[in-house]
């Protein structure tokens, strides 16, 4: 992944060099190009993604494709934008972040792919704008405040993600996925690029499994043009990544593929399922085992890479997987975004139940309210479900980053009364996607890997918006049409395998590690003014005795701990980002 940054306005070369050195080390040198008011920098082994074309300065990062799935160069981007302006981005596919200084418009143009696989953040003030692929680089600017966005952090503490369009810092904003931001003399203007969910009618006509398979295959093939690269697949126990692996194997029959799986041990369903899939496909397979004690080392490094933390158990494990794949492959494919497009998440199952099972919507809403408040549900049916799933004790209330308890995430049951709830839910996700895909990209890039997510392609989004709800979720299955498509090339032992969430075992060992992290991070000697998460709130979450934590208790603690790690790495050390040795900054240790 190529790191890039830039500044429009008055700036000196020393400051831009400092910004460039804070980008991940995909290259040793910081390449700087200046034209008119714009100064762009790129940290890479070469500066092929940074050039001037007439009255435009262009920087590109990622894997750019045209509408037919063919690779594009920075010259193609410059020519396409020159011909079509902002409309050019409607036909651009792949994973990309693009910055263009258009001197004719006196405007900075920032663009990002539909699901934000490539990260891109910006900030601005009077007569200046700055952008970067990683917001570490922006913290080198004294104009940018270190004030945290407490509402965004509070949303993370409840939901596990910073809300769309926000970061943990008040002054820093991500470019929304699937958007172009025009920044000129007036307020920034946001333009949604195609596919736009609002342009689609509610789907009714069914699609065929062959049509779905052909669309996924086309997307996989678009990322497999480099005949010199070594290809790998991040393989879970599910059908999403298995289908990617099978199609990649078909596209590159003479290439030795390698798959990688991460899990907590021999009993992990992902380890077991991925091992079976790799054996059936004849792929060289490697397993990465992560134990709870490994979190003491992994969590600070993962938060440093992610910048805004998130993802619960998944991201430290993906950090370890990327580290295990480093040097063995160049490109790492994954099945991310399949669940969003084809309705494969637990939220989709709950939404189906809320719509089709009498009384289920009310019970599910009660359970969600109880989960957030730390109380027992009011009605006896909801309380009975709570007892069966979570135990007979109310869960502790979540910790808060401030007095404002409002949350910015959409509740899934809000779609239950819609005519086509899964279609509406997908449209909402496309309009307000958060930064989790960009997070996975930077984890891979930390170890020099190019991350490929074929399900995030525009033509697959277009297809998903045309699939009726009845083909996505049924009484016994999620991702119904995707599984039928996969059956055309994979055995039912893979296509009908149950989906599992990637997580640790929440046993006594995990509980001991959580207690250790709490004791190391929330120490009384820490200055009160730098606190974001209240130690008293976190202490209420701690277990009594030696019992293991319940899953939701782990979740609340996890979010509080990672928020504290973030504070110590980015807020407490802000002065280091402003200093001459900023390029030497790295993750703290616990």
TrEMBL record:
Residues in the signal sequence: none
Top EC category: ligase
EC annotation from Swiss-Prot or TrEMBL: 6.3.5.4
Single GO term (MF): asparagine synthase (glutamine-hydrolyzing) activity
Pfam families per UniProt: Asn_synthase (PF00733), GATase_7 (PF13537)
Superkingdom classification of source: Bacteria
Every Asparagine synthetase domain range: 212-567
Pathway linked to the protein: Amino-acid biosynthesis; L-asparagine biosynthesis; L-asparagine from L-aspartate (L-Gln route): step 1/1
Keyword Cell cycle: no
Span of domain Glutamine amidotransferase type-2: 81-140
Catalytic activity entry: L-aspartate + L-glutamine + ATP + H2O = L-asparagine + L-glutamate + AMP + diphosphate + H(+)
InterPro entries in the cross-refs: Asn_synth_AEB (IPR006426), Asn_synthase (IPR001962), ASN_synthetase/amidase (IPR051786), GATase_2_dom (IPR017932), Ntn_hydrolases_N (IPR029055), Rossmann-like_a/b/a_fold (IPR014729)
Record's keyword terms, sorted: ATP-binding, Ligase, Nucleotide-binding
Family that this chain belongs to: Belongs to the asparagine synthetase family.
Name of this protein: asparagine synthase (glutamine-hydrolyzing)
Top-level taxonomy: Bacteria, Pseudomonadati, Pseudomonadota, Alphaproteobacteria, Hyphomicrobiales
């Amino acid at each position: 992944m190529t790191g890039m940054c830039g500044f429009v306005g008055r700036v000196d070369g020393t400051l831009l060099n400092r910004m460039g050195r804070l980008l991940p080390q995909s290259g040793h040198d910081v390449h700087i190009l200046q034209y008119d008011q714009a100064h762009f920098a790129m940290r890479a082994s070469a500066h092929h993604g940074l050039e001037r074309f007439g009255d435009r300065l262009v920087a590109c990062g990622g894997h750019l494709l045209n509408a037919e799935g063919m690779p594009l160069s920075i010259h193609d981007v410059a020519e396409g934008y020159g011909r079509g302006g902002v409309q050019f981005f409607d036909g651009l596919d792949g994973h990309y972040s693009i910055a263009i200084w258009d001197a004719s418009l006196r405007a900075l143009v920032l663009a990002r792919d539909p699901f934000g696989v490539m990260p891109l953040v910006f900030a601005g003030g009077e007569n200046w704008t700055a952008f970067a692929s990683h917001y570490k680089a922006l913290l080198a600017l004294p104009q940018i405040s270190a004030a945290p966005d407490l509402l965004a952090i509070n949303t993370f503490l409840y939901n596990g993600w910073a809300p769309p369009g926000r970061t943990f810092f008040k002054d820093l904003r991500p470019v929304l996925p699937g958007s172009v931001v025009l920044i000129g003399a007036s307020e920034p203007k946001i333009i949604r690029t195609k596919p736009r969910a609002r342009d689609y009618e509610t789907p009714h006509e069914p699609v065929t499994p062959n049509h779905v398979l052909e669309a996924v295959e086309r997307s996989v093939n678009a990322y497999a043009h480099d005949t010199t690269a070594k290809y790998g697949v991040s393989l879970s126990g599910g059908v999403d990544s298995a289908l990617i692996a099978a199609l990649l194997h078909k596209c590159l029959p003479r290439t030795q593929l390698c798959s990688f799986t991460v899990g907590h041990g021999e009993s992990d369903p992902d380890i077991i399922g991925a091992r079976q899939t790799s054996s059936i496909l004849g792929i060289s397979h490697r397993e990465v085992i992560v134990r709870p004690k490994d979190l003491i080392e992994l969590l600070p490094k993962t938060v440093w890479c992610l910048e805004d933390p998130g993802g619960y158990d998944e991201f430290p494990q993906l950090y370890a997987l990327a580290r295990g794949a480093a040097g063995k492959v160049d490109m790492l494919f994954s099945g991310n975004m399949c669940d969003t497009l084809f309705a494969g998440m637990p939220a989709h199952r709950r939404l189906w139940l809320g719509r089709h099972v009498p009384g289920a919507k009310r019970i599910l809403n009660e359970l969600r309210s109880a989960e957030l408040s730390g109380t027992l549900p009011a009605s006896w049916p909801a309380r009975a479900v709570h007892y069966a799933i979570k135990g007979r004790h109310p869960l502790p209330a979540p910790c808060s980053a401030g007095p404002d308890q409002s949350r910015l995430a959409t509740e899934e049951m809000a779609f239950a009364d819609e005519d086509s709830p899964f279609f509406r839910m997908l449209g909402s996700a496309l309009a307000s996607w958060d930064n989790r895909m960009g997070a996975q990209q930077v984890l891979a890039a930390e170890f020099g890997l190019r991350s490929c997510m074929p399900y995030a392609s525009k033509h697959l989004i277009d297809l998903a918006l045309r699939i009726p709800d009845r083909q996505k979720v049924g009484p016994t299955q999620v991702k119904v049409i995707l599984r039928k498509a996969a059956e055309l090339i994979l055995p039912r032992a893979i296509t009908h395998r149950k989906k599992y969430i990637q997580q640790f075992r929440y046993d006594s060992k995990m509980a001991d590690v959580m207690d250790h992290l709490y004791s190391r991070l929330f120490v009384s000697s820490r200055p009160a003014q730098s606190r974001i998460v209240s130690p008293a709130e976190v202490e209420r979450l701690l277990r009594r005795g030696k019992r293991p934590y319940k899953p939701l208790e782990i979740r609340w603690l996890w979010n509080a701990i990672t928020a504290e790690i973030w504070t110590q790495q980015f807020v407490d050390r802000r002065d280091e980002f402003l200093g001459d040795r900023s390029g030497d900054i790295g993750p703290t240790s616990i």
